[in-house]
Amino acid sequence: MSIQGIDLEKVTAWLGANIDGLTTPVEFTLIAGGRSNLTYLVTDAAGTRFVLRRPPLGHVLATAHDMAREHRIIAAVGRTGVPVPRALGLCTDEGVNGAPFYVMSHVEGEVLDSADKAALLDPSLREAASHHLIDVMAELHAVDVDAVGLGDLARRDGYIERQLKRWRSQWENSKTRELPAIDEVEKRLSAHVPTQQGVVIAHGDYRFGNCLTDVKKGRIAAVLDWELCTLGDPLADLGYLGVYWSDGPSSALRANDPTPAGGFPTYASLVERYARTTGRDVSGVNYYVAFSCWRLAVISEGVYARYLHGAMGKQDGIDLSTMKLGPEGLAERALDAVRRLV
């Protein structure tokens, strides 16, 4: 049996030699839902489960899928109170699998990435889970970057300026068509960059859909998908969460957002809770919501381009025509948001 993206013989041998507690042979299962790095469930001969992450197949943008960097981040964050899987091993020898990969512990929990998935979380626990989601974000932003060895992960200042430059470059390298809204939003955002409030570990993709939730307790069991993590402005994560939060039918715009199911607190109440917990000024959070819509439009275009060119391997049920509309909708939402700011 073969599985795309895994050299069964070589990877199995590497796992047996390098991952404590793993017993070969192993079985690999591609975990559905990932649209960037490929994620596999690894089940060993004793039934113990692990998780392996590797870059997409085929051509990818330079620095966009740095396995060593992602492994370093979760290993460092794992020494704090922020819930993350344990980093168990990193392979940088491309002779093993054609690309670097890393292995982490498997954490039980549910990825709440749709309104249907919200049904797994009892309505009586939805507020508690939301509050814990924001509290974990605040805890991440309270980590001393130097104490955990991430002080040199990235530049500390000019986060928004750096991000605007980075994602403009990504857009030019991955776009499949012209979207004038992308250009207009970038100009407006660049003209009104807010003052950065300190430096934190900014996750970059923080939402229910990138966490494992313990649905029995209404708590976050682990934060996943650290590939966009950097040092930067704390309000970027807070604004990004607003892109994935519904306060009613008119704002339910993301299919991978569980909150349209109802029973979740308002986004404004989460912003207030974050402000109370951290003491930060959140009055400018709407700028970061607009920025996050724009950035996500660029990211979504890159994902669409990779699927279009086959870099994500064969995955059934992917509707490319719908995926193509995603960046367009986000760009227009960003444009509407940024016009209301200035």
Description:
- By secondary structure, the chain is of the alpha+beta class.
- The protein folds into two domains: 8-105, Phosphorylase Kinase, domain 1, CATH 3.30.200.20; 117-341, Aminoglycoside phosphotransferase (APH), C-terminal lobe (Aminoglycoside 3'-phosphotransferase, Chain: A, domain 2, Alpha-Beta Complex), CATH 3.90.1200.
- Helices cover 40% and strands 13% of the residues.
- It contains ten helices and nine strands.
- The chain has helices at residues 8-18, 67-77, 94-97, 126-141, 159-174, 180-191, 234-243, 267-278, 285-308, 320-341; strands at 26-30, 38-44, 49-54, 87-91, 101-105, 200-202, 211-214, 219-223, 230-232.
- The chain has a five-stranded antiparallel sheet, sandwiched between helices.
- It starts with 7 loop residues before the first helix and ends with a helix.
- The model has no long low-confidence stretch (mean pLDDT 91).
Brief write-up:
The protein is 40% helix and 13% strand. By secondary structure, the chain is an alpha+beta fold.
List keywords for this structure.
single chain, 342 residues, alpha+beta, Phosphorylase Kinase, domain 1, Aminoglycoside 3'-phosphotransferase, Chain: A, domain 2, five-stranded antiparallel β-sheet, two-stranded antiparallel sheet, 10 helices, 9 strands, 40% helix
